[in-house]
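Reply to dn_fold:

You asked what the input looked like. This is it:
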Amino acid sequence: DFTAGVKQPDGAGYSHSWAPSVDSRLGAQISADLTSQLSATLQVIAEQQWDKSYRPQIEWVNVKYAFTPDLSVRLGRTILPLFLISDTRKVGFASPMIRPSGEIFRMLSITSLDGVDVSYTFRADGVKNTTIAFFGKHDEILPVFNSIHANAGGIVNNSTYGAATFHIGYLKAKGTVPDIVATPVPAISALGDHAPISTLTLGASYDPGNWFASAEWVKGKADLMGRQSAWTVNAGYRLGDFTPYASYSRLKQDEPSLLLNVAQSTTAVGVRWDAMKNTDVKLQYERISARDGTAGIFANVQPGFANAPKANVISVAVDFVF
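and this is what came back:
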């Protein structure tokens, strides 16, 4: 099955010839200024979960205190800002493409943390820098495992100069997977008990108006998944209400794991049509190639599924904001 994330139990392919569940999502966000320095944010998202339900999930719920316009602290559930487009990865209308690179975001399934982050913005020689330090915990359920718990901390920096943005981020975490800890094989069970995880991200984008381009590289290490690296590049050109675009992504297994090895590349082309002020329509074609004798990042892999298979995926999406 082709899915948009590790939390989805099935998708288009083996389970269904086509599947609206892959990209269907509804979200709402409320923000309130409680005082001149204190504010609160709540974001709720309904999308397919591990049990095939669409129960709304709280993605963000936090309070923010701004000591100065450039220095603030947030407490509660906040976005994990590790990637270049972390803030908007689930807002389809904000992206020219239907979905962000699966190869990049499969490197780390965590999207939010329950904890604290500190943000500081400073300017120098025309460059705006925003540095965020964060720490917290995360619990979730995935189709493959009953539960996962992680404690994580890290730091990111975003630098903006004119139409260019540069991003660097680093995360250090320890993850526990009870299902793996319960495995009777000591070499495997040890991998699921407070296993260290580290992720380094580098990204850049340039958007002067008529066209855009971006790239991101991720390096990850985890006992459960071994050493992996991934990168993606994409570009597009705006022609009135139409934006044709193309992208290429690659995920490599740099060091094998005892549990699961994955390698894959995806070539995508598509077009976005801004049909109305708050609505777009997108058509996208992808050629997905699993690599290195693995089944790639497909879900529900069946016995006899060929090594290094290839697949064609056609997607249509309508995004709207209100």
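Residues 282 and 317 are 5 Å apart (CA to CA).
Hope that clears it up.
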